[in-house]
Amino acid sequence: MSCVGQGYDRVRALQLTIHPILPEQICNVQVDALKEENLVAESLRGMEKQLEVKADDLHYFMERVWVPLHGNLQDLVMDEAHKSRYSIHPGSNRMYHDMKILYWWPNTKADIATYVRKCLTCAKVKVEYQKPSGLLTQPEIPMWK
Description:
CATH architecture: Orthogonal Bundle
Protein name: Integrase zinc-binding domain-containing protein
Distance between the termini: 85 Å
Shape: elongated
Low-confidence stretches: 4-16
Number of helices: 6
Order of helices and strands: HHEEEHHEHH
Number of strands: 4
CATH class: Mainly Alpha
């Protein structure tokens, strides 16, 4: 069984640029994660029966690549989705909608929200942390004729 994706490593409509060896890494980690001793930690709760193996030897859940918790590849995928040059620090909703097309793992949305909340760059550009550019002045109240 080969763990190399055939056409998977190209950019898919500029949604995510992925590392060229990411499909192979995911495939190897998926094989390890599906072992009995690691399966409980994945918290799939029976969903592993719904995983299907496609021609690129990756396990898919509902037409999306399953990224196991084992191997810390979820962080790598979120890093790539959040800091790539095509999607510069999107918010958690935008990032989730971009990623849900290609990737899946249990609690994806919550993990993405936590990841974005911890991003220092995103925290600095939030409105509540920005200072006004100059002195605040009261606008003139117009007088009625």
